[in-house]
Amino acid sequence: MTASTTTPAAVAAAPRRTRPFGRSGPTGLLLRWIVFAVAVALWQLATYVAVPEDDKMFFPAPTVIAKRMYELWLTGPASHLFLTPAATGNILPSIGRMLAGWGIAVVIGVGLGVLLGRSRRLLDYVDPLIQFFRAIPSPALIPVFIVLFKLGLTMRLAVIVFGVLWPILLNSIDGARSVEPLQLDLARVFALKRFERFRLIIMPSAAPKIFAGLRVSLSMSIILMVISEMVGGTNGIGYTLYTAKDSFQLPDMWSAIVLLGILGYTLNALLLWVERRLLAWHRGARRVEP
């Protein structure tokens, strides 16, 4: 009787997960910028081929918009980082208002959402109110906010906070409820204190869904920032867009529109960068799943 032996060749190799082509890394970055460059080139071509000469002022080419953006915002003195008064007086205040409103909503939404997610009874009591108020568009409440806060910074912050709060709140509730009961049982076995359970178990488990809500709310905050500045505003990107439209300065209007797209892309990229570093463990865990 001979003992059975197993050669290395007989051992089934574990399947290796390959990274989809072009998803990340230098190749993925290059492909994304190629797609962007092709889209801009098609836009440029369409303005010369498909747009009649009389309508070119309504649909300017990307080169015309880029030139106007440079003239509007990047021809200032070197001591001001080449920013013009139009840039410092409109772009920077808009970004400040947007980030302030979004930040307030993050603090309220995450804090309240985790609390409600860990208390089923409390959530049952307040869920009808949440479903009622989240169905109301924030711009519809602008007259109410004007009566309450008058025209000014507080009114604009209220518009942003009310609109972006709900995706943060709902995702935080969902994330806090998704904690595995086994993890909480282990925490009790090891006699972890309540704050330690919150820091080591609840927040890490809820973080992926919380960040999903943050990404959605960040885009919404830009939209609501523009809307709030169009109503009785005296500066800001939304104010620039509104006055350019009224005065028929269409290159200025398109410059503001493109600037909003650039702002949204940049802020989303920064948030994704933060998410990847804070949740690297989460992506690693998903990669080793069968």
SSE arrangement:
Layout: H1 25-49, H2 62-73, H3 85-117, H4 120-134, H5 142-149, H6 153-177, H7 181-189, H8 194-230, H9 237-246, H10 250-278, H11 280-287
CATH fold-level topology of the domain at 97-233: MetI-like fold
Average of per-residue pLDDT values: 85
Principal-axis shape? globular
Contiguous helical run count = 11
Secondary structure class reads mainly alpha
SSE arrangement, N to C: HHHHHHHHHHH
So, CATH architecture of the domain at 97-233?
Answer: Orthogonal Bundle
* Helix share bin: over 70%
Q: Any low-confidence stretches, pLDDT <50, length ≥5?
A: 1-15
CATH class of the domain at 97-233: Mainly Alpha
Main sheet overview: none
* Residue fraction in strands: under 5%
If you compute it from the alpha carbons, what radius of gyration comes out, rounded to the nearest whole angstrom? 25 Å
Number of strands: 0
| CATH level-four homologous superfamily name of the domain at 97-233 | MetI-like
Taking the alpha carbons of the first and last residues, their distance comes to: 38 Å
Keywords: Cell membrane, Membrane, Transmembrane, Transmembrane helix, Transport
Membrane topology: Multi-pass membrane protein
Family: Belongs to the binding-protein-dependent transport system permease family.
Organism: Actinoallomurus iriomotensis
How would you explain this protein's 3D organization?
This is Nitrate ABC transporter permease. It is found in: Cell membrane. Pfam families: BPD_transp_1. This protein has a domain of 137 residues: MetI-like (MetI-like fold), CATH 1.10.3720.10. 73% of the residues lie in helices and 0% in strands. The chain has 11 helices and no strands. The N terminus is likely disordered.
